[in-house]
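ESCALATION

Customer reports they have been waiting on this structure for their group meeting. Please prioritize. Original submission:
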Amino acid sequence: MAHQFFFNPYILDNLIAPSRGFDVVQDVSEPRLRMYITSRGVKTFFVRKRIKGRDRRVIIGKYPDMDIEDARSAVANVLADAMKKTPVKRKKILFRDFVQMYLKNRVHRSVGSYDKLVRSINRHLKPLFDKSVADITPADVQDTIAAISGGAIAERMQELLLSVFRYAIDTGYIKENPCAKLPRPQQNRRVRPLNKHGLRRLVDAIKNYEDDVMRAAFLMLVYGFATKNLVFSMQWEDLDFNRYTWGERPLSDMAVVLLQDLPQDGYWVFPGRGHGHLTDPRLAWSRVVADAGIPNLTMDDVYKFIVRRLNWAGDREDLRNNMNELLDELLNVE
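Update from on-call: job pushed to the front of the queue and completed.
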């Protein structure tokens, strides 16, 4: 439930931003008027309305660009406009072109995440590209989803199509969503193949790998208690060997010893090709896990196996001690 109070400049100017996500507050004078406060301190007026069975949030404007009284006055008109029926467009549009419009107007992501989404669309939804949006049937969507290997990817693509066709309804290109009544793709949950004995075999296989940078990076997946993306993008300037820290993170003893033996002659701890850091060494990893006898093991499996066994603590030194004790237990260090 949103926190309610009388909107005035003094209170809104001094609202504390949440540490993550967003908070919602509600005006007492005009109860239909609400405001988002994001973790970056952005404040946005909006209203909520159930339209055609769906709960919709309609943005009014950003504060302080929009005055409070102007936002209150705009509520009635915004709600009235939201209830108007969208005129159906007679002009047809290809799915390929409509997706571009959807990405431009509805998708707000980082550059890397946006590019990844575009690649997925081009790879998995290509059978729909040359069809008119108005002519796409539930059978067309079901055939496209069924051709995708991997239940998780198929489910994400179906959710994306559901959103795309909702936008097509909002913009008047179609009247009904062809994805609305389709069953969700079934997922076969993968069993993570790692245990203590497998972890020890993995570490032994990593230590025998010939490339120094790759060997150290893979060992940090075990010693660092962090995801592969964080590990591979480590920077020397973030490491403090006097305090045994990596930014705000404590470093285990094994991580400290490993990192101190590396040459500190660049920007990245684990440099990749060119001027960047190591990104996704799948070929090297496949060789390592094959040598360890765990061919289906992923780098994420290692992180999840370890952190689920870690006894988390609020104090940094206590957490560091827990990290050391867990590695001693898992790797049977005498």
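Sent to customer with the following note: The longest helix spans residues 151-170.
Escalation resolved.
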